[in-house]
Amino acid sequence: MHEYAISVDGLTYSHNPGSPPSLLNISLHLPPGSRTLLVGANGAGKSTLLQILAGKRLVKNADVRVKGKDVFRDSPDGVTFLGTEWAMNPVVRGDITVSAFLDSVGGYRHKERRDQLLDILDVDLDWRMHAISDGERRRVQLCMGLMAPWDVLLLDEVTVDLDVLVRDELLTFLRNDSTTRGATILYATHIFDGLNSFPTHVAHMHHGYFVTKPMPWPCVSSADSPSINLYHTALSWLKEDRERRRESERMFDNKTRGARRNETVPTDSETFYRKYDYSH
């Protein structure tokens, strides 16, 4: 057993050379068996961090290890990454039954876990992949990704399409699986209802850096006051992020988001579209 299931030191990453960094001096150390939630607004860097940990984006000048192994030079086994882009892949939208699809990716080797997940996710083996909804396709993805036992699970917003009942039962399965096998979960989400008892740690990201590094959950304040829960904590953090961003925009005279009510002179496009506006 390695001291840390996930270990990152000095990670800075830009999507393009010369562009501002999407991640800035990230350090992260998560013990085996931990379940950590990444909290942050859209664009905070959560997905980029998860993709790097999964070895999907290359970095050169940082030490990024999972299960004690360099994710780029000595890829560890037992690591599962589940992201939202999977459902858009044309391969998984073909005219094939769910049963044949799962068998094609090794479902027959993990029958017990596969069957448990089929029940939890309420999946019909006779569904045809091209004819089901996005939410149903997401359930198939989760069954496919989770049926082989994992040591480290990286989740990027994959529960967003699930109804509340299936989501609750899936999270119960993941929590029990992590506790029983000492497996590690790093989970980025914007949905915090029903998650209060799920994480062992929570972390707060903003503009590519940690405002709050992974801290044990529940924190002292939530234990002292039951009314302070994960949802309220996340909401407070995101409000602080928005104010922090707005203050930065005011200081550096950047264009602000939202309506621009002080613009009295019509733009060229407005003049053009007014001329050819046939809606009236």
Account of the protein in words:
- With 280 residues, this protein is an alpha/beta fold.
- It is built from eight helices and ten strands.
- The protein has helices at 46-53, 98-104, 111-120, 134-146, 164-181, 220-224, 230-251, 268-275, and strands at residues 6-13, 23-30, 35-39, 63-66, 69-70, 79-82, 152-156, 184-188, 201-206, 209-216.
- The protein has a six-stranded mixed beta sheet, with helices on both faces.
- Strand 9 and strand 10 form a beta hairpin.
- The longest helix is centred in the last third of the chain and has 22 residues, at 230-251.
- The chain is globular and about 65 Å long.
Question: How is the topology of this model organized?
Answer:
Blueprint lengths: L5 E8 L9 E8 L4 E5 L6 H8 L9 E4 L2 E2 L8 E4 L15 H7 L6 H10 L13 H13 L5 E5 L7 H18 L2 E5 L12 E6 L2 E8 L3 H5 L5 H22 L16 H8 L5
Parallel strand pairs: 3-8, 3-9, 6-7, 7-8
Antiparallel strand pairs: 1-2, 1-4, 4-5, 9-10
Helix pairs in contact: 3-4
Count, helices? 8
Question: What is the distance, rounded to the nearest whole angstrom, between the alpha carbons of the first and last residues?
Answer: 70 Å
**Average of the residue pLDDT scores:** 89
* Shape annotation: globular
Please describe the biggest sheet, giving its number of strands, its sense, and whether it closes into a barrel.
6 strands, mixed
Spatial arrangement of strands, main beta sheet: 6-7-8-3-9-10
Structural classification: alpha/beta
Number of DSSP-assigned strands: 10
The low-pLDDT segments are: none
Give, in order, the helices and strands.
EEEHEEEHHHEHEEEHHH
Helical content stands at 25-40%
Q: What radius of gyration results from the CA coordinates?
A: 22 Å
Beta-strand percentage range: 15-25%
